[in-house]
Amino acid sequence: MLISCLIAAAPLLGATAADDAFALRASHVHVGDGQVVLDAFVVVEDGVVKSVSNNAPRGVRVVEVDGHIAPGFISLRETLGAGSENSERTRKSTPTADLSFAFDPTSPSWKGLVAEGVTTVLLPAGSSQIAGGQAAIVSPAAGEVLKRNAVVTLGLSRSALGSSTAPTSFAGLYAHLGEQFDAASEGSPLADAKAGKVPVMMRAVTRSEVSRALDFAAAHGLKGAVLGAPEADDLVDEIKASGLGVVFESKAAPASSQDVVKSALALSKAEVPFAFTSDAGSQGPLGMRMQAAACMRAGLEAGAALRAMTADAARIAGVDATHGTIATGRAADLVVWSGPPTDLTSRVHSVYAGGHLVHSAHAHGAHQ
Amino acid sequence: MRSYPSRSDRRSPLRKLRTLGIALTAGAALSAASLAAQDEPDPAASPDLFLRANKVIVSPGKSLDNMGLLVRDGRIVAMGKDLAAPEGAQTIEGEVICAAFIDPWSVAGVDASSARSDRVDTASRATDALDPYGQDEVLDDLLASGVLMMRVEIGSAASVSGVGAVIRADGATPVLADAAISARLNTPGLDPVSRVGQVDRLASALGGAKKYADDTAAFESNLKTWEEEIAKKETELTEDFKKAKKARDKKVKEGKEDGEEVKEKKYKEDKRPSPPKFDAKKASLARAVGGEVPMVIHVEQALELRELLRVTRPFTRMRMVIAGGRCALLFADELAERGIPVIVTPAPSSPGGDVGEMDPGFALAGELSARGVEVLIGSGATSASASRDLPLLAAAAVGHGLDEDAAFHAITAGPARVFDLQSKVGSVRRGLHADLLVLSGDPLSSSTRVLASISGGKVVHQAGN
Questions:
Q1: Which CATH number fits domain A73-317: 3.20.20.140, 2.160.20.10, 2.130.10.10, 3.90.850.10?
Q2: If DSSP codes are grouped into helix, strand and coil, which group holds residue A52?
Q3: Where in chain A is the domain with CATH 3.20.20.140?
Q4: Strand order of the sheet with strand B342-344?
Q5: Are A124 and A132 within 8 A, CB to CB?
Q6: What is the SS3 string spanning B24-77?
């Protein structure tokens, strides 16, 4: 009980100190795009990163941290605490649905995810809908919706097909979806997706599902990513040519996906951006890091693994201007690790979201 | 039936002779030599293997710099700084050499329906369910991840699931056929009274097995006494035959004179002690009660664990191992004092899961270890492929407070010790079986790659191959 009280109190504690500017000094600052700045100061002002440099800032409180600073991780699917609010059951198509309504900032399960260094999540529609609506980007630690109508979610896998409700076949699915895109009026979510203003996230699992999704995206000029695609390694050239990214579904339980490991290595080699989901509801708060670590044990570079959980994830979700890297003007979503951020043996010392200290391992010392 | 290496092979010479005698009289196809050689690594035409690394982790927390290792006929035959590769030897170099990872709680290599079965009992054997062909892909993945050995069990739906084995991932071959007896007190959805009832049933089964063992021991002792007595009588009869005959003749004569019939003394042979009725289940469980094999009990919740610790106190020789134990922190002191290890499965479930607030999640291993409990880390026998993530689970435990050496112990020397294989595997020493890994860095680091896996002296995986 004591522990949960401390966690609940954490954002309040942070809030008092957040108005004034401060700086964190660490031996390693992982920018998120692959760069690492040694012995650097990260200056934070008004919840935003003001600068990253080797020179000590003047007139700012400096917090020396023992370890590595990295951007908070970004999960490109997390429905924790959404209940079933993220999926409309009776209608296959609700393209204008705003998924930020499904966000429950008071859900106690978020704290576990934040404690593992995840500060930003994308809350998409369920994969049983064809056009389930517009995903929201939220900050679970701050309890805020960061961006509404950020990504258009499309369900193009078998799980979007009904047994007695239309569509019951892929032919029917694409006919229906094609009509919707063609008929989309100016300013509607699907029209924005068609114009490339809003990225899409298309769930497709098997090879043929992915191929069809790539064709559909090309035909309608869609940008964004395929969600799923565990066997993306078989379609590397096609995916590369499409300009789309891939979001792998994390699998921590009962085991990391070996297909995803192979595909992540292949995409990394071909320089196709990819990211992961966390799915903490079913995989636990560590699922995303476990899947990334499984890829690393098979040869994925630590820098590529970090990019997948930060900069590339932000790019795929269209929020790279504000999130995913530690650079001037980006949100101060920072995690202090005891070692390299992608290493499972590293511990989370503290987590900042929007410049607020939202989690500190010290406050959790109760067990030890 | 196939015969696998088991504990009986390494018990007293007398037992060994008896085992051999049975095997021979039963006309078993195996020769005595091959039976004795069962647990030896296959030396079949394996050329020498030479390994070199900047760091050799001999045992958790103890390492030597810049060492060469010579492997011959499945064993480590030499180690040294100045050791050079013999001519013709295959050479593999890396940054670190360490003992292969051992998953102390797994179903990899075991037929999936046997693993989930509820139709098993204390006498069922995991070696009867090995499935090297149906699971070859999973086993290959294990070789690539460095998990070269597993303690497997069957019957995850049964309350007591019989004799588990330690097997090599390479071909699912047994290293020890009778590694442990396993039981579980974790049936979901039961009310508290039934949950306690489960513990009581286990306790009475243990009690029954103990009585069976006591009766068997009493029988063996009585039989011995009887055999000695008979032998003595026979000697007497042979030696004093004439005297005895004279005495009897006299007795008969006197009897006739008195008109009485002479009662012959009943021959002692009729009073041969009888053994207790054979019961395979009790006999099997008795081995755990007597401490010959460890007893692994899967228990997660506080109620069951508290009852279990209470009812097992009289079984002082039993070597209990707790598997799961998400609430084990509540009993850490007793577990430490009684020397009961816990196989922790850093489960993905978050606090607030089915065990509730008491589930410390990934921090369990570190906190138990800090309280003096020996921690092993296992994949939890939920799926065969889960064993592949064993080094990740150990790393995650480090990331949540477990000491790095303790985490390494938890997947190498720890399981080897608990399942009585420390004289064969789990560390890197001359004379031990060559079940080793050649790595590009520290064993648990996420950026480390397994460059080569050596199982019983055989190179079973090499990176890039």
A1: 3.20.20.140
A2: strand
A3: 73-317
A4: B101-106, B147-152, B160-168, B173-184, B295-299, B320-324, B342-344, B375-377
A5: yes
A6: HHCCCCCCHHHHHCCCCCCCCCCCCEEEEEEEEEEECCEEEEEEEEEEECCEEE
What is the Cα–Cα distance from A102 to A124, expressed in whole angstroms? 9
> B54, B103, B55, B50: which is closest to B78 by C-alpha?
B50
Token reading at A321: 């201007």
Cβ separation B395–A280 shorter than 8 A: no
Rounded CA-CA distance B318/B320 in Å is: 6
What's the complex ipTM? 0.90
Instruction: Answer yes or no: are the C-beta atoms of A140 and A359 closer than 8 Å.
Output: no
Residues of B whose CB is below 8 A from A296 = 446-447
Residues of chain A contacting B403 with CB distance shorter than 8 Å:
none
Nearest CA in chain B to A361: B400
Mutate to test the interface with B, among A261, A297, A338, A364 (most CBs of B within 10 A): A297
Q: The tokens of B171 are what?
A: 């071909």
| Span A112-169, pLDDT tens digits | 899 999 999 999 998 899 999 999 999 999 999 999 999 999 999 999 998 888 899 9
Q: What is the pLDDT of residues B269-283, one digit of tens each?
A: 668 889 999 999 999
First to last CA, chain A: 15
If we measure between CA atoms, which residue out of A260, A275, A272 comes closest to residue A314? A275
From residue A75, alpha-carbon distances to A267, A279, A285, B298 in Å are 18, 8, 11, 34
Cα–Cα distance for residue pair A320/A323, rounded to 1 Å: 5
Residue range A2-71+326-367 in CATH 2.30.40.10: yes
pTM above 0.90, yes or no: no
- Rounded distance, CA A293 to CA A287, Å? 10
Closest CA to A75 of A319, A263, A346: A319
Kind plus residue range of the DSSP H or E element containing A123: strand A118-123
Q: Can you give the pLDDT of all 368 residues of chain A as single tens digits?
A: 334 444 444 444 444 444 579 999 999 999 999 899 999 999 999 999 999 999 999 989 999 998 999 999 999 999 887 877 888 888 899 999 999 999 999 888 888 899 999 999 999 998 899 999 999 999 999 999 999 999 999 999 999 998 888 899 999 999 999 999 999 999 999 999 999 999 999 999 999 999 999 999 999 999 999 999 999 999 999 999 999 999 999 865 556 688 999 999 999 999 999 999 998 877 788 889 999 999 999 999 999 999 999 999 999 999 999 999 999 999 999 999 999 999 999 999 999 999 999 999 875 443 33
**Cα separation, A268 vs A262, whole angstroms:** 10
Residue B398 has its nearest CB partner, among A109, A345, A367, at: A345
Check: CB of residue A250 under 8 Å from CB of residue A288: yes
CA-CA distance, B270 to B297, in Å (whole number)? 45
* d(CA B20, nearest CA chain A) in Å: 43
